[in-house]
Design a protein that fits this description.
heterodimer; A: 110 residues; 3-stranded antiparallel sheet; B: alpha+beta; 6-stranded mixed beta barrel; 30 helices; 21 strands
């Protein structure tokens, strides 16, 4: 991932994480795999940005975490959306749509 | 998480650091494992899977670091780390205990002075809503000596009637009373009060009632102080029928004031204003103090403008007495502390200087130690610690030191409180109770932070400017930064010396003033002169002639005793206070009247206290009542009123009574400065007989004479109570007591400052010597003698000391002006002090330099050449 793309992602990483968690609780590794799969292998989130973002979201109260067991019997910390997080997801999604529409308008015109 | 969890989580993160770290570690590792598992499933070999996973993951430590940063309050963690490090440095460098000790001294002194100031200035008076209490005074627009003075009763009554700003306004004045207890008469301090005074203050008697307006016309009642009541009537609470005999009159006890009530000053008795006496009808007779309570919503400024109008009205209505007389309204609190107020800024300034000197010492210590740590700090900077991080470390260390010093100083202050608070308390107004309350704690905290930052900023600023590369290249010892550091240290030492000099000069001035007050240059030994205030009760001796007779009789009798060398009497023996009257000169009636102090004296008075006659003659028995009015004047009056002329035979006086000058005596207190001299004249006691004080000069031990005099008094009037006697030098000591306290305090501070400054210069010179031993070795190897090396070091030190002294002189020249009235008789720019004291500083500074100089000369050239 080049530097510029990373910066953009930091702002929208929260959105991606929240969206990923909408599908159900999962651990950090699972979130990174999911994001990669859903973006058709374009977006690869590095651990150096994933975990800080997870901790930040947890401190802000949009996701909550607890220890659990993964499907291959490994101990892992599972995150899930809180009600506040759900509201935040809606907010961030509409923000993103507005933003991307605006950018598209500029880029798409000749 | 809800809001309080969010707030607390950083703090909790701090405390549960290890647990959270472990969690994070585990989470990241489980991620690694999951990744590895996924790699295995996608077909990689185990070893390859593990490596790939590790590569993909990146540095675990870096992630952990980022996450930890995220947890918040990183600065707190770092602060604790710095403090731990600082504490370790402190343990390893015992030299710092000296620095902390000097800081403790400086901070302790400041805290003590601050608590005194807080007690005087910040503490309210012990009355409800005391900020509404004001004092009103008459003020002369023309005569600067009468900027504020007592109010006459008719003026007071008019002010009361005409003004709207006050809910209560009353007048009070002091008088001497004699209380008859059994057979004896006892002098008692008491005040006459108008009925409004107590309501104005908001104080009610503990027993009985306060004074009411009818008491002023009817009389016959009194209020007792708690101690007096207790002494006379024990713990009785019933007032009916209790009465006392005051001034030979029986009065009923109307009420008892609560214990500790002390308005206007330490008092035992309060009587209602005797409205009938003639002084109370005279508009021109300054009677007493007026105290008032402002109505809610009225400010002092508003009251002042109202009273200005009233003053103009009265001046127009009564031009004879009130022309040019204004009214001054001031807060009662400010009036009560007016006596001690001028001293406070000086003490605070002196204490602040000492603190600055101590800080400079500590800063120098930190600087020199940091020079030794140059290399370490440079490495840290090179490895990535930002300047901010390093500076934070230094500040944390200096804050640690300053908090230690503050704690030590604070403990010392509290522990010795009874000592210094007792000393100071004697000079302070009654209501000011010195206590270590929360204001003082906050002050100490503030000072601790301030000194920590100040001391830390000096080396921190150096770090800011330093380039780590240079330091690392040169091995840290003789880096280019050492030059500017040396300049900084010299600058600090010069400042220390300058501040110490200012304090020394201040102390010198104060001490000179005390000397001036204690040694008025009398021609006799003041220890052999007894001064006795005989307050003849007005009841027995209502007429002046009767008092005159009493004294004449007494003195004649005393003069027959072989142990008595001379005896005389006067209105009072007051080197300083007194009564003043406006007088005009007969020759120049067009000039405005001058307020001049006067004191009635007996013929032998000057002889007794040792004041020489300069011209003309002394008063004699011929200057009786009925003979032309005569007076002796002092030399200042002669010089000011009749400059260049012979005053003998000239006449002066007020309106219709001209007094002729028959003699000139030397000032009671010659010497000193012009501003402390005053014109005085001394009428013959036969003609003006306000006599209260007996003076007796003896050849023997005065203590032996006292009981004999008391006996004689008893024989003359057996109801006469024993009186206060003191020797003249004690009296002079009393007059000088405030100046003496100031002198002692300033000397103590100056001594402290001098010690700290000498320690400072010693430290800097010693350090420089230790840095340059190599150079000394080279010099001595090249032929320099020991004495040359000593001279070299002394020259360094001497240069610093000279600059410091010069700077100090400049500062002192501008600062000592504030001492003004506190140094009676001495000019704030006294030449002797300004010339002599700097040599004291230079001397001590050079002594401080001598020891390192001597050590420098003891360097063995060969060994220092071998070492690098």
């Amino acid at each position: 991932m080049s530097e510029e793309k990373m910066d953009l992602l930091q702002g929208t990483l929260d959105l991606l994480i929240l969206k990923a968690l909408k599908l159900g609780p999962m651990h950090g590794f699972g979130i990174s795999v999911l994001i990669r799969q859903m973006s058709e292998d374009v977006l690869r989130v590095e651990q150096g940005s994933l975990y800080p973002a997870l901790y930040r979201l947890e401190r802000q109260g949009w996701i909550s975490a607890e220890w659990g067991v993964s499907d291959n019997n490994r101990k892992a910390r599972f995150y899930k959306l809180t009600p506040a997080g759900r509201k935040q997801l809606v907010q961030e999604t509409s923000n993103w749509e507005r933003l991307s529409r605006a950018i598209n308008l500029i880029v798409k015109t000749a | 998480m809800n809001w309080w969890q969010k707030l607390l989580s950083p703090l909790l993160a701090l405390f549960r650091k290890e647990a959270l770290d472990a969690d994070m570690e585990q989470e990241l590792h489980s991620h690694l494992e999951l990744q590895m598992q996924a790699n295995l499933e996608s077909g990689m070999q185990p070893k390859e899977a593990k490596r790939a996973a590790a590569c993909q993951f990146g540095s675990v430590e870096a992630v952990k670091e980022i996450c930890r940063d995220q947890r918040g309050l990183l600065w707190l963690e770092q602060l604790l780390q710095d403090l731990r490090y600082g504490a370790r440095m402190l343990r390893k460098n015992p030299g710092f205990t000296v620095g902390v000790a000097t800081l403790a001294l400086g901070i302790g002194v400041n805290t003590a002075i601050f608590s005194i100031i807080s007690a005087v200035v910040l503490q309210p008076l012990p009355y409800p809503d005391s900020e509404r209490l004001v004092e009103l005074n008459q003020s002369s627009r023309t005569d600067p000596a009468l900027a504020e003075y007592a109010v006459s009763a008719p003026n007071y009554r008019d002010w009361r009637a005409l003004s709207r700003s006050f809910s209560h306004v009353g007048i009070d004045f002091y008088s001497d009373f004699s209380l008859t207890e059994g057979e004896q008469l006892r002098p008692v301090r008491g005040w006459y009060l108008s009925s409004e005074v107590l309501p104005a203050l908001g104080v009610r008697p503990m027993l009985g009632r306060a004074l009411i307006e009818e008491d002023e016309t009817a009389g016959g009642v009194a209020l007792l102080g708690y101690n007096l009541w207790h002494r006379l009537f024990g713990s009785e609470t019933n007032l009916t029928g209790k009465s006392i005999v005051v001034n030979d009159q029986r009065v009923q006890v109307a009420g008892v004031m609560p214990a500790g009530f002390n308005f206007p000053a330490a008092t035992e008795l309060w009587l209602p204003l005797p409205a009938s006496k003639k002084e109370f009808q005279d508009r021109g007779w300054p009677l007493g103090h007026v105290v008032g309570r402002l109505r809610p919503g009225v400010s002092i400024a508003q009251a002042q403008s109202e009273m200005d109008l009233i003053a103009r009205q009265l001046a127009a209505q009564y031009p004879k007495e009130d022309k040019g007389i204004g009214i001054r309204v001031a807060s009662l609190h400010s009036k009560l502390i007016a006596g001690v107020r001028p001293v406070l800024p000086i003490l605070f300034g002196a204490a602040a200087f000492i603190l600055l000197i101590a800080c400079a010492n500590l800063a120098n210590l930190l600087l020199s130690r940091n020079l030794a740590r140059q290399k370490e700090l440079a490495i840290r900077a090179a490895v990535g610690a930002g300047n901010g991080r390093l500076i934070r470390q230094l500040l944390a260390e200096s804050l640690l030191l300053s908090f230690l010093g503050t704690a030590a100083g604070f403990i010392a202050v509290i522990w010795s409180r009874s000592l210094w608070a007792g000393l100071a308390g004697r000079q302070l107004p009654r209501f000011a109770v010195i206590k270590i309350d929360s204001t003082v704690w906050w002050f100490a905290l503030g000072v601790a932070i301030f000194t920590g930052l100040l001391c830390g900023l000096v080396p921190a600023w150096r770090i800011w400017r330093a380039d780590p590369h240079d330091t690392l290249k040169q091995g840290g010892q003789r880096s280019t930064t050492a030059g500017s550091s040396a300049r900084l240290r010299s600058g600090l030492v010069v400042t220390q010396l300058a501040l110490a000099l200012v304090l020394l000069i201040g102390a010198g001035l104060a001490l000179k003033s005390v000397y001036y007050l204690l040694h008025p240059g009398l021609q006799v030994d003041p220890r052999k002169v007894l001064v006795m205030d005989l307050h003849l009760p007005k009841a027995r001796y209502p007429e002046d002639t009767q008092r005159l007779e009493f004294f004449e009789h007494l003195i004649t009798r005393l003069q027959t005793w072989p142990t008595v060398e001379a005896a005389g009497a006067a209105s009072f023996v007051a080197f300083g206070s007194g009564m003043s009257m406006p007088i005009t000169l007969e020759e120049r009636p067009e000039e405005p009247p001058r307020r001049t102090f006067s004191c009635d004296v007996s013929p032998d008075f000057f002889k007794t206290i040792g004041v020489p006659l300069l011209r003309g003659r002394e008063l004699t028995a011929q200057d009786r009542k009925g003979a032309p009015l005569v007076a002796v004047i002092n030399e200042t009056m002669a010089r000011r009123y009749w400059p260049g002329e012979n005053p003998i035979g000239k006449r002066f006086g007020s309106s219709d009574h001209w007094t002729t000058v028959v003699g000139v005596v030397r000032d009671l207190r010659p010497g000193g400065v012009e501003s402390s001299r005053r014109a005085e004249y001394y009428p013959s006691w036969y003609q003006q007989s306000f006599i209260n004080t007996l003076v007796v000069r003896t050849a023997v031990d005065p203590a032996k004479l006292i009981p004999q005099i008391q006996d004689a008094l008893q024989q003359m009037d057996k109801t006469f109570p024993p009186q206060d006697v003191e020797t003249l030098d004690h009296l002079l000591g009393d007059v000088a007591s405030e100046n003496r306290t100031l002198g002692i305090l300033l000397t103590f501070f100056a001594g402290l400052a001098l010690t700290l400054a000498v320690v400072g210069i010693y430290g800097v010179i010693a350090y420089t010597v230790s840095q340059r031993t190599h150079e000394f070795g080279v010099r001595m190897a090249l032929g320099a003698r020991k004495a040359d090396v000593v001279m070299l070091v002394l020259k360094w030190g001497g240069r610093l000391a000279l600059i410091g002294t010069a700077l100090g002189l400049v500062l002192a020249w501008s600062f000592t002006r504030v001492m003004g009235r506190l140094i009676e008789g001495v000019s704030p720019r006294d030449a002797t002090i300004f010339v002599i004291v700097p040599w004291v500083l230079l001397g001590f500074a050079l002594i401080g330099c001598y020891f390192p100089a001597y050590r420098a000369s003891g360097v063995d050239p060969m060994s220092s050449l071998r070492n690098e």
